[in-house]
Fold:
Amino acid sequence: MVESLYGLQGERSKLRGELRLLHSQLEQKDRDRHSRIQAFQQQIDELKGCIEEREEELSRLRTATGATDSEKRVLCLSAENESLKQNLSVTQGLLQQLSTIPSQSSTMLLKVSHTGNGGNAADGTNGTCDLSAQENENLRSRIHQLELSLQQRSEQLSHLERQSEQSEWRRGEEVRKREDRLRELQLELDREKGKEPVVKYVTQTVEVESPATLKHLSKARQRGELLSEKLAKQNERCKQLEEQIRKSDEHSCNLQHKIAAYEREISKLREELLTEIGHLEEKREEAVKAAANCSPEHFQNLQEQFFTLQKRLTALPPTLRCMKTDYASLRSQVRNFSSFYGAAISDAKKQISAAITEMSEANKDLLEKYRKEVALRRKYHEQLVELKGNIRVLCRVKPVLKEDQQHDEGQSVVVVTTDPNNESSLGVLNKGKVRVFEMDKVFHPQATQEEVFQEIEPLVTSCIDGYHVCIFAYGQTGSGKTYTMEGSVENPGINKRALKHLFGEIEQRKDMWSYTVTVSSVEIYNEVLRDLLSKDGEKLDIKINPDGTGQLHVPGLRLIEVKSFQHIKKILATARRNRITFGTQMNQHSSRSHALLCITVEGTDLATGSKTTGKLNLVDLAGSERVWKSGAEGERLKEAQNINRSLLSLGDVIQALRARQTHIPFRNSRLTYLLQDSLGKGSKTVMVVQVSALESNVGETLCSLKFAQRVCKVELGPASRKIECG
Ligand SMILES: Nc1ncnc2c1ncn2[C@@H]1O[C@H](COP(=O)(O)OP(=O)(O)OP(=O)(O)O)[C@@H](O)[C@H]1O
Structure:
């Protein structure tokens, strides 16, 4: 019994050990189950998150535009969502089942503890062991079922994941398409923007010709001209060098041709030589053969022939050598040609620079001589002007024009005659009598503008030398004063020609003198002074210069520095525009004011630094006709009276000057007052009296000529002027 009891106890402890093992196994399974439940729970959470995302996307798509694709996509996603939800509920149910299963290990422990409480229930021990084995079996099958179900869920889950991936991919596709569409729209927008605008804007450029701009412009132009000149010179030099290179190329080409010809000749000669040697060898062979058979005389002959041939043969190599050396020297010539060419050019350059220095030395001498010549010329010129008289009166007869004939109602009778053999007299037929007037010079009606200017030219030159010069055009309205002074565009008068001459002289003297030319222009109308170069035509006054020199000046008068003849053209045009013109019975475009163009030339001797200031006053006087004939009344009458008064004052001043009176009545008119420093002592004056040749103007012609004669009549120094009066 005791033995069997011990046996049972051993069995029981064995069973207990087995149960403990089983229990630990079950515990392990429990832990696995828990971890699977947790994984499940996690997957469920993820599924929930995925469902939420899908729902969000669904709601987004629902709010998006009603595109058919989007609608389809919404439906698809809804169906997917539904199935996902079903899957989720199934999974949750399963999970709940799993959660409600009691822990096998705890049951087992309970049972183990029950069995451990009393050792007296031996029958019960076996029964408990069977029950636990069955339960274990049940649990195993349950766990197996659960594992199968878990596997199924996992498969479902992976299926759902795949579905989710697919829907994600579709969504990505959708987004990509939308982005593509957006890009297309952007491109279209850019294209639209890049198109020409329908409305075009008009841009206008406003040019402002400020004096500073003009000055800069003229400077830039001069610089441009200088640069173009330099460029032209460089181009010329380039052309020369190109020509030289071309010639050198030609030369080198010729040399190469020659070399080629030589080479050909040499090879030909070599061939000839070889063939001849061959022939000779053959002949020699033949001769040797024949010698054995022929007579001694024949042998002698042959020997002689052989010797001559040998001589010829010996003469050939030197020729060949000669040709070879020729050929080699030609080759070296060609090779050395470039260096030789460079050396030749540098030689030429040296020669040129030497020639230039030589020239500049010679130029210095010439310049010195030229200076002396200029001084001498100036002296002679002074003497000439002195001889001609510092106040000269010239007369120009206006040709009869078509317009004059219309005024004269067809009776264009000419009463003024000039003598081709006597350049200083003219006759006027009046009341059957010819009255002869003597002037310093008379220009016949066909005299050209150039001829008139030639008479004035020396005075213009003396202005550059520092003299004050006045040139007046005097005469009745329409007699050609403006024509003589201003002229037309095609046929310019004294003003333009004088300025052109002035700038020409300045250019010629530029190596010795530097000059500044300033210009002003005024008109005197009804004894009022106006600036013709100013736009507002403000009234000006003549005042004593406050610098203490006692000289006169006009405050506010515009003085323009002129750099070129082109510039002066613009200034003259402005002055002409501003001049007051009115129509009268005598001349449709009669100028009723005195117009003055004042040119100041300041010179500096570059060698000595001494300075000169010359003035040239070019005056186009107002018409000198008598008041009654101009049909003037009211304002016009006042105008004519003023004109006549100032002309009279001018006559008085010139007469007083010519008579070398102590008092010169400069202040009697604005005109003479303004010209005071140019009419005084040491100045030079020319009066061009304009007359009409027509009988209808004979009265005015006589008046003008009498005025001219009054000026001329005064004696000059010891030599008196002989004037014949009719
Ligand atoms: N020598 C000439 N050769 C050709 N045409 C001339 C000549 N002299 C004058 N004329 C013409 O006669 C017309 C009048 O001349 P101009 O205007 O010069 O006269 P004026 O004396 O200046 O008159 P005003 O005192 O009224 O200004 C102009 O059309 C001009 O072209």
